[in-house]
Amino acid sequence: MSKNEILKSFLVPKEALKLYDLDIFTLGKMAGAIREEYFGKKTFFNSNRHLNPTNECSDICKFCAFSAHRKNPNSYTLSKKEALDQVQMAVNNGALEIHIVGAHNPKLDLEWYLELFRTIKEKYPQIHIKALTGAEVNFLSKISNKSYQEVLELMVENGVDSMPGGGAEIFDEGIREKICKGKVDSIRWLEIHGYWHSLGKKSNATMLFGHIESREHRIDHLLRLYHQQEKSQGFNAFIPLVYQKENNFLKVKSFPSGQEILKTIAISRILLPNIPHIKAYWATLGLNLALVAQEFGADDIDGTIQKEAIQSAAGSKSANGILRDELISQIKDSGFIPVERDSLYNEIKIY
User: Fold this and answer.
1) pTM here?
2) Closest CA to 79 of 71, 87, 91, 90
3) 180 known member of a binding site
């Protein structure tokens, strides 16, 4: 069978599900061959800073440890000056990207964010602004009485360069009803990203796995992303996020093994040949497993991060980021070639 025939067979959910029955070495070989064809031994990272303006949220997602309305008693909302001070610190520390994701806080309306974006872009035109998940866009659309299309157009006008992939969770609506009831639905999430792509902008896509979803739900999620990418061609990277188990209300008792995580990453590479990059996000995987994942189809591990509040609230060790030199050293020690990139995967420096 040709590559196209093999891919076509996997686009049938029952056939794609059979990939999980393969042993870990076979899957690694399949996904690794695709990765090697695309990028050789390169492993991408960037110099970025996460800015989380608030954790006060009107939603009640059961998997979330970040929201102050759940198990996190330490609520906060940054003033615009505090947010800009964090940006200044990030720039001083060499960040090229500001990744802005917060909570669904009605105190921070659309204009608050637009003014923040404008100010950042005016003061630091070199900074790439990656901001607002599809879920946040949907929320701001509701509280501003504007369509999501208008919100996205205003984001472009005010300096947002790309969108992160959060809020996707698992697309199956039955699972969403249990873990993130009231959040943007799967169809609207895909519509929001599709329209963003129609504006000539790029975004990422995520999948939160390892909680109450099944393998069938993961396959459904991946295939929906495949078909959306065929239509809008705007996803830069897919990021399989491993559920973080601490300080939330989901009460999951069994967690995926390292092999199950690596299988899922490998299957992502196999089923998403039209999305260029697969990111093994070290903030949820841990750096060691993220580096192993480079052998299983992943080609990116995110970046230095500097500060991070969402995953670390649920037990991840990502609160203070990682130094660039350490990241480079670890990638080299794993047998890969560190490549610093910008937010759109243009190569800045090969180490």
Assistant:
1) 0.91
2) 87
3) no
